Amino acid sequence: RSSPDVFESRMEKRSDVKKQPVGYSKQGEFIRCMEEKARPIFFAEGLGTKTSKGGFTKDKTLDSILNVEMVKEKSAEEIKQIWNQYFSAKDTVYAVIPAEKFDLIWKRAQECPSFLYALPRKEGYEFFVGQWSGTELHFTSLINIQTQGETAPSQLVLYHYPELQKEKGIVLMTAERDSKFLVVHEAQCLANQVQLFYATDRSETYELVETFNHRSSEFKYMSVIAELEQSGLGRELRPGQVSDKS
């Protein structure tokens, strides 16, 4: 009665509180805010990286992508899920490779650092040369090499990270591509062929890689196409055909 203005002000505040949804409180809002800020940030892509000619990242380390110290407390399966979930939202190629399989790929990459891959096109195939440089695998089309020689730019780079190989038994892989020349499913086809030719148990398949590197005069382009067609890889790249991969 003595202060009508104060009374009305208090009644307005009371009315505002009633309009707020059940369970609402400033404290609850604060807690949610703090929880969001406290969520672990596993990825820090773009930090400490430099873009080289052609748009590819120079010295693309795992630390520049992933908070390695934070994930060391995770199991291999948890890291795999984190990696796959993160990159599934991106327009790129990625994988988590078992340590034993990468050991085989890496051993063979030292012996045979380059190979010829066939990418299915609407009519025929386009050939790409894959060249290992450390744990990076660079691809460029054969026609580029024929016209530009050693200066031919990379059109796809696969980055392999063995930092967690001993402790977790996995090797992480991601990629960068020149979108003017390759779409994601074409890049994926080339990446799948690395497994096909370098991680195979079939001696006849890996023999093609050995022949390309050490007996080039005996190498037959059509043998690569035959292996590719037999494996079913790249079938989805051809119009009117359905991949049998589940």
TrEMBL record:
UniProt KW keywords: Mitochondrion, Transit peptide
Major place of residence: mitochondrion
InterPro entries found in the cross-reference section: ATP11 (IPR010591)
GO cellular component, one term: mitochondrion
Annotated stretches, region: Disordered: 1-20
Compositionally biased region (Basic and acidic residues): 7-19
Record-annotated membrane-spanning stretches: none
Subcellular location: Mitochondrion
Highest taxon of the lineage: Eukaryota
GO biological process: mitochondrial proton-transporting ATP synthase complex assembly
Pfam families the UniProt entry points to: ATP11
Family in the record: Belongs to the ATP11 family.
Protein's name according to its UniProt entry: ATPF1 factor
Organism: Calyptomena viridis
